[in-house]
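Here is the promised in-class demo. Please do not try to memorize the tokens; focus on the logic of going from shape to residues.
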């Protein structure tokens, strides 16, 4: 058997964290078993489905790298097929036309509620219907009256539901359009889905879908209903908790591997391990190890993972992802030092790509203002002489390399009998604008000689102005 899984979003919004985790689990399961992963867009709700939402979902999948082997299939392209199956169910006696008016159904429901029995269709049209296809009607699935449905669920364990609990479900509306449960069944059957991995909000649809599949003589897939995701506060994850669209995490400078790593850990674990590369996830993940209970999204953990991946990923890859964030700051990183080298210098010190872009801007353009605290502390009268000496020697340096720069800083400190900090810190604030940066020699090498000299001049002028103002 070739494992075939699917992700079947309804395009009524962006790709949210819950959907992304369902997609990830389905994708991982297919990858792990050398199977196929299918993307199906469930867009039959014409009023709520939008093209923007389809694009947002595709964009999110692409960003996360959840590539699909087949699709995207669109349910709206498959109406003919659904009609065919509905007809097949009518012909085989597994479905029937129902002409009951809204009034009759309302009266029926009220009576059942008053008698405290579960509201359900009473099968009236099975016996009394005019069976006139021209009169307005819906089509109902004739659910078996006896026996039970067994769900083999890889997360929840085996579930048994008595058929007496199930209604004769409407599978086609008055306008002939198929309903949700019918389209899912036809697609899972036609697409030969072997494992349905989805949110546990669909659990109550499953016995109905199994009955329809059986009526069609189709194989029943194995199900895995995954629990919902909670926010930090234990309530169901929603917009209230901040970002729920995966692309919002992209915009906030989170790496896709960090988000995937956090998502895979929501309900799944492997010992005490926290870090899972994609390859490791594929190797270790198993849907049967997913927990039944809901788990909470944790922004701090996500940031911690992000920091980890920023630190350990290939600098060229981080540079590639960082580039658009530099662009947002009006910086073209092809004009200036190699962005990969900048990343290498900065990798240890950033939590998000946004932060890395902000703290890397000075490599590419002069800053306007000094960080006040850093300037107050380091750009004082006493810094004038070391800065002047450094400037003199830097100007004379023809091979602008970190080791020579380092040597000059050392020499100037020795010559002025100052500790290194008293020389390097004013230099750092002069060139970076604040008191933190990667090591001063690499920083200056990347900033370049010309910009370094220009910024030292500016700092000296700044000190002079301060001194003059204080007199
Ligand atoms: N379209 C459904 C949803 O977005 C999923 C259906 C399924 O996975 O069976 O909730």
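The designed amino acids, position by position:
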């Amino acid at each position: 058997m070739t494992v075939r899984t699917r992700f079947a979003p309804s395009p009524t919004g962006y790709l949210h964290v819950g959907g992304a985790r369902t997609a990830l689990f389905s994708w991982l399961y297919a990858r792990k078993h050398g199977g196929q992963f299918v993307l199906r867009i469930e867009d039959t709700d014409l009023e709520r489905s939008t093209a923007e939402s389809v694009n947002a979902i595709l964009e999110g999948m692409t960003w996360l790298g959840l590539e699909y082997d087949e699709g995207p299939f669109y349910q709206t392209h498959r109406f003919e097929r659904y009609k065919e199956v509905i007809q097949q169910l009518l012909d085989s006696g597994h479905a029937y036309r129902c002409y009951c008016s809204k009034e009759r159904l309302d009266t029926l429901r009220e009576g059942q509620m008053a008698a405290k029995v579960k509201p359900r269709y009473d099968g009236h049209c099975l016996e009394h219907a005019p069976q006139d296809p021209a009169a307005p009607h819906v089509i109902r699935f004739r659910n078996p009256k006896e026996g039970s449905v067994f769900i083999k669920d890889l997360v929840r364990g085996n579930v048994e539901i008595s058929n007496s609990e199930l209604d004769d479900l409407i599978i086609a509306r008055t306008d002939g359009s198929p309903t949700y449960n019918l389209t899912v069944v036809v697609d899972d059957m036609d697409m030969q889905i072997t494992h349905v991995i989805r949110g546990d909000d669909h659990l109550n649809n499953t016995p109905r879908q199994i009955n329809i599949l059986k009526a069609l003589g189709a194989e029943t897939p194995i199900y895995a209903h995954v629990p919902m995701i909670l926010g930090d506060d234990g309530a169901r994850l929603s917009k209230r908790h901040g970002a729920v669209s995966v692309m919002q995490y992209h915009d906030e400078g989170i790496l896709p591997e960090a988000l995937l790593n956090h998502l895979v850990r929501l309900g799944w674990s492997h010992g005490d391990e926290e870090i899972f590369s994609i390859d490791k996830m594929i190797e270790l993940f198993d849907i049967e190890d997913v927990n039944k209970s809901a788990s909470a999204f944790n922004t701090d953990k996500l940031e911690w993972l992000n920091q980890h991946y920023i630190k350990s990923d290939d600098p060229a890859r981080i540079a590639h992802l960082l580039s658009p964030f530099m662009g947002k700051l009006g910086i073209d990183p092809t004009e200036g030092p190699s962005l990969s080298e900048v990343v290498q210098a900065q990798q240890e010190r950033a939590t998000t790509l946004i932060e890395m872009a902000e703290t890397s801007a000075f490599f590419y353009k002069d800053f306007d203002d000094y960080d006040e605290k850093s300037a107050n502390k380091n750009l004082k009268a006493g810094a004038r002489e070391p800065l002047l000496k450094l400037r003199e020697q830097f100007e004379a340096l023809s091979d602008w390399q970190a080791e020579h720069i380092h040597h000059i800083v050392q020499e100037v400190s020795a010559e002025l009998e100052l500790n290194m900090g008293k020389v390097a810190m004013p230099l750092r604030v002069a060139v970076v604008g604040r008191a933190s940066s990667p090591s001063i020699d690499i920083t200056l090498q990347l900033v370049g000689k010309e910009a370094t000299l220009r910024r030292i001049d500016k700092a000296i002028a700044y000190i002079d102005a301060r001194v003059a103002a204080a007199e």
